[in-house]
């Protein structure tokens, strides 16, 4: 990490504080990679719920569980962020929700390979999803405490890159140590899914260990001035609606950005959700090679995020997001017409090159727009708006797949959502103060 990441002033921090902040991303990637995406969720549906009686299969129950969790996140996130802002307890908020995520993830070790344990797995997975997203709200708000206007793009990109690389490292360790062959290199027993359950326990410990430096090193901000003691839950929602009306009157383009980012972030999520499936069913990638492609894609995304972070600081986040969305749309259109593993590797990796920059600069866009002391509230709204349209890409993928009778056609749904996000973002005014503050810094 270059010395260019350190600074002082609003959100100034030492390089050590930035590194500690980034390690939370490194650790949290364990949850996403091992618990939600590649390992435990697959075990839950393909093994634990394989013999589930009744007309509703395990995949559907998993969808219902994550959907219900998403609804609760949408309702809770803005208030959690606002209360942490008001009380000057962002770091404490991250600590509490991170601890609950770790506890819920560790509890998955109890989920044996028997459909009677499916309810426990779904409950813990849903709860850990809620806790993780709520931790992310205040964690994202801490971005302004570990950066300056001149370095915020690079710092945000550094965090995203740490997350990508952390996910790669732990995924490889878990696969080699516990999963490959019969119990991995460590020969962990596989009866009742014990090796997968141990992997979940390791992921929980990984998150805990790498989250600790941030809590020890990054300072807490004082409470917001001019605010009384945080109101109760009902009062918090009243204050939220009041602040939303005031935000729209004073900064309508911030509200417009929340809507636009909800669209293109849903498209980005769909790339991860359906990418592996399409790789196998459309382009003939071997099931064993999907993990290798996933690792390569994470490396490329991390490199893209790091490179774009400097561009973000020079020309602003909107240019990075627009360029990234255009790049993904070009790659996606090409993928609609090519076939075979080689073409998928070339243009699939080209597409993922732009995913990291879009994610990182979306975070810096909102952080630059946020009034000082209200970052947590805005990132809570960021989580809420993202959840509000999270059904869109999956629904369109299913619709186009059905209408055209082709898995390839499902890609059109993702491209339409990305395109809609680009169109919605186009008229949004970028943070007016960003360039000036960058020069001053």
From TrEMBL:
SUPFAM superfamilies, sorted: MFS general substrate transporter
UniProt-listed InterPro entries: Atg22-like, ATG22/LtaA_families, MFS_dom, MFS_trans_sf
Localisation: Cell membrane
Membrane-spanning residues: 21-41, 61-80, 92-111, 117-143, 155-178, 198-218, 255-284, 290-308, 320-338, 378-403, 409-428
UniProt topology in membrane: Multi-pass membrane protein
Ranges of residues in domain Major facilitator superfamily (MFS) profile: 1-433
Keywords: Membrane, Transmembrane, Transmembrane helix, Transport
A Pfam family per the record: ATG22
Stored Gene3D superfamilies: MFS general substrate transporter like domains (1.20.1250.20)
PANTHER family associated with the record: AUTOPHAGY-RELATED PROTEIN 22
Annotated protein name in UniProt: MFS transporter
Native species: Pseudonocardia alaniniphila
Highest classification ranks of the organism: Bacteria, Bacillati, Actinomycetota, Actinomycetes, Pseudonocardiales
């Amino acid at each position: 990490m270059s010395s260019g990441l350190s600074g002082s002033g609003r959100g100034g921090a030492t390089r050590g504080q930035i590194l500690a902040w980034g390690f939370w991303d490194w650790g949290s990637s364990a949850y996403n990679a091992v618990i939600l995406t590649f390992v435990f969720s697959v075990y839950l549906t393909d093994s634990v719920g394989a013999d589930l009686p009744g007309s509703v299969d395990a995949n559907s129950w998993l969808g219902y569980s994550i959907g219900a969790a998403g609804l609760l996140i949408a309702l809770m996130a803005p208030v959690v962020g606002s209360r942490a802002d008001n009380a000057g307890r962002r770091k404490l908020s991250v600590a509490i929700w991170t601890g609950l995520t770790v506890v819920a993830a560790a509890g998955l070790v109890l989920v044996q390979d028997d459909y009677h344990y499916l309810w426990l797995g779904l409950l813990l997975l849903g709860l850990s999803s809620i806790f993780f997203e709520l931790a992310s709200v205040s964690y994202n708000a801490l971005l302004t405490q570990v950066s300056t206007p001149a370095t915020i793009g690079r710092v945000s990109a550094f965090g995203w890159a740490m997350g990508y690389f952390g996910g790669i490292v732990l995924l490889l360790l878990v696969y080699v140590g516990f999963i490959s062959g019969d119990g991995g290199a460590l020969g962990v027993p596989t009866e009742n899914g014990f090796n997968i359950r141990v992997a979940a326990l390791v992921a929980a410990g990984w998150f805990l260990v790498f989250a600790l430096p941030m809590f020890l090193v990054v300072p807490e901000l004082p409470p917001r001035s001019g605010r009384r003691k945080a109101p109760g839950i009902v009062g918090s929602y009243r204050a939220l609606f009041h602040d939303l009306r005031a935000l729209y009157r004073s900064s309508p383009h911030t509200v417009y950005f929340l809507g636009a980012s909800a669209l293109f972030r849903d498209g980005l999520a769909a790339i991860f959700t359906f990418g592996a499936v399409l790789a196998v069913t459309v382009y003939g990638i071997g099931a064993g090679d999907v993990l290798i492609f996933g690792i390569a894609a994470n490396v490329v995304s991390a490199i893209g995020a790091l490179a774009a972070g400097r561009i973000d600081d020079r020309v602003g986040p909107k240019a990075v997001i627009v360029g990234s969305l255009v790049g993904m749309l070009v790659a996606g259109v090409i993928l609609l017409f090519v076939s075979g593993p080689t073409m998928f590797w070339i243009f699939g990796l080209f597409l993922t090159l732009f995913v990291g920059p879009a994610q990182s600069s979306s975070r810096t866009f909102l952080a630059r727009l946020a009034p000082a002391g209200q970052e947590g509230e805005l990132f809570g709204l960021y989580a809420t708006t993202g959840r509000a349209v999270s059904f869109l890409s999956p629904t369109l993928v299913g619709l186009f797949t059905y209408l055209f009778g082709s898995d390839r056609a499902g890609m059109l749904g993702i491209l339409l959502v990305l395109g809609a996000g680009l169109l919605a973002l186009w008229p949004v005014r970028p943070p007016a103060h960003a360039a000036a503050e960058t020069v001053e810094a």
